Amino acid sequence: MECDPTSIKTEPPFTDYDAQLTAYRETMESLVQRTLEAHGRIQQYIYKTPLTYSIPLSKQSIDCKVFIKLESEQLTGSFKIRGAFNKLLKLSSAGDVVKHSGIITASSGNHGMACVEAGGTLGIPVTVYCQRGVDEHKKQALLDRGVRVVLHGNDCVEAENEARAAAMREQKEYVSPYNDVDVIAGQGTIGKEILESCPDVDCILVPVGGGGLISGIARYVKQVRPSVEIIGCQPQNSKVMFESVKAGRIVLEESLDTLSEGTAGGVEENSITFPLCAEYVDDWILVDEEEIGKAIIFMLQHHHKVVEGAAGMTLGAYMKNPERFSGKKVVVVACGGNIGIDKLKHLLSLYT
Description:
The chain is of the alpha/beta class. 49% of the residues lie in helices and 14% in strands.
């Protein structure tokens, strides 16, 4: 029997990265406590976003209840503010050096805006490296804030590598968009909020790019409620983490253009998110571009909410096979709402 390549259960091949898992074991074990500490640290700076019951999504499956975690309504329009504030608060508490020298980060847009917001609040200058071809709407949002934006490479990993090298040259702190335990712990606070609002959740669908968001959510939720199924969602046009987990190592795979630009691109070598995804993500769903576009319009039509491609991608993962979730209570993480008006107008012309 042939399996559906867009929804594949992968068993983690531990033999291929056992040494890496061992190296990160202490960090993994401490991540739940770090997440609890992050929640206490950042809650005065961020929003506790709504967990909204979706009647139209729930009706697509039998005896299913679907809730949407609206991180699209978070400060700066994205979940990224959680990890950024947690990291920068820890840096600023360590001394005044970082406030004078500033930080360097790499981003496809949302993480950069989050670092700028947190940096502005805490008095920390920020330089953002982006890949060429970064979403124009997000790049302009950074420029409008007066941020120094450096374009480098054609993939987010190339921008990340150059940003890390620049930080070493300039003796500044580098803040990774995902490959950092403090950033991951900040994103994990979403898992804490989900379990507080919906303690009997059965499945959580999470968008995956570099893996910081799902690593934080999965590690916390699996500790508190191991029975919850964590499902990683990626666009078919950029599925590096999925292919990496399947292969047992981080793979180099070209990413095609996708509406889910927030999750597009490669994964940094030796990223802590790789073993976390391999160990704690139960299943994967891949989503095509039409499914992403239709999900974005669905949210606008049925919930009067504007979401970006990465959020549409996760909603589309549910919508492509709602029968899979029959009889279950499901949370879909809508990770952001930063989409340009021209892109939204184009999608409206296609799907309405």
